[in-house]
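FIELD: query
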Amino acid sequence: MIRLIAFLALAASPAHAQLASPPGVTLGQVQSLMDQSLAPVAAKADSAATKADAAVADGLTSANRQQALRIQVTPDVNGRAVFTYPMAYAVGVKPAVTTTAETPNGAAYRNDASVEESSATNTQVVILIQRVPKTIVVSLLGSVTTLIAPVTTPVWINVLVRAPV
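FIELD: result
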């Protein structure tokens, strides 16, 4: 492709037209070949532009198509927290939600955040926060220990909400 562009640049210059033109090939033929090879690229660009235009027509702009926030939540006794989006999506739009919980420095555990299944709506989502120990010790004496526990204290969560395309 680079050779073809260099050829076109040389062929377009009158001073170099004799040097750049292979025998029996005209500039029009080269232009026709280039148009044919670039047609699929142009079709993909038109398709992406059409999707973007349709999204704007649906009221989804770049400002509310994707919302990323760092929030502090205080979960209930089951480790659940409801997060309401700052900007609601259109009725029927079910956005994809990704969550990441922050863990305090030096903690012997890590906080884990996930989205409760089928809880994402056009206005809110339910986030589940659990505390997982970094080191697991197993006792041979038969005692039962809960290793994963729901978090009930305030936790910082990074939330990414994105409307489907």
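FIELD: remark
The radius of gyration is 29 Å.
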